[in-house]
Amino acid sequence: MPLISEEPQIPESAQGPRVTPAAGRTTPTPRPVPGPRSAATPRPGRPGPGPARPAPPAQRAHPAPAAPAPARPKPADNPSTPQIQLIPAPVAGALDAAEEAVDLLLESGRAPGDILVLTTGEQHPWAAHELSFGEAAYWAQHDAGDDVFFADVSAADRAGARPVVVVAVNGDADPTVARTLPIARDRAGALLIVCGDPQTINSALGAGV
């Protein structure tokens, strides 16, 4: 359809009451039409086709997530009984298995500060290195809680609770393991991973794994 360059004639009835201009003023042109109007541009004085309207539906969508509120009782189902996971490993390979478990936890999105690693035998190299700077600096890192913390089982009583505790049973002293695992279970908020000989671990936890 050819475009008409002239202004469309607007019926007097649509123009509203005519106002006589004051002396010295030019009469404003009623409702100029600049040209073809895109569908997205609303007409003056009228609501647009929809760009401004999506907001209310979006706001209504927010109350809907309130339904998942019943999911909050889940923590009550897990008061102080963390999930226990056993990773079979020989005494000599328990530390390596624990490190692999930590890597998997980090890759899955677990925050480093959520993880505490305890060893029943030889200390983890990181712990030995950090302790060389003094216990104050070593435990300051534990208290900061922003990274994986490695500690000897003898320090399990001093270590605070974390969502995940990984125990490397890299020492074959059954009494030590028997004392460590219950403490580690108390420290674990959600998950306890034990790497070592299944028979030793099961007997230490009273076959509860």
Summarize the structure.
This protein is α/β, with parallel strands linked by helices and 209 residues long.
Q: What this model shows, in words?
A:
The chain is α/β, with parallel strands linked by helices and 209 residues long. 32% of the residues lie in helices and 15% in strands. It has 8 helices and 5 strands. It has helices at residues 12-15, 55-61, 74-77, 94-107, 125-131, 135-144, 174-187, 198-204; strands at 83-88, 115-119, 149-152, 162-168, 188-196. Strands 1-5-4-2-3 form a 5-stranded parallel β-sheet. Residues 29-78 have low confidence and may be disordered.
Averaged pLDDT: 73
Overall geometry comes to globular
Number of strands: 5
Strand order of the largest sheet: 1-5-4-2-3
Order of helices and strands: HHHEHEHHEEHEH
- Major sheet characteristics: 5 strands, parallel
Structural class: alpha/beta
N-to-C CA distance: 81 Å
Topology:
Layout: H1 12-15, H2 55-61, H3 74-77, E1 83-88, H4 94-107, E2 115-119, H5 125-131, H6 135-144, E3 149-152, E4 162-168, H7 174-187, E5 188-196, H8 198-204
Helix pairs in contact: 7-8
Short descriptors:
single chain, 209 residues, 5-stranded parallel sheet, 8 helices
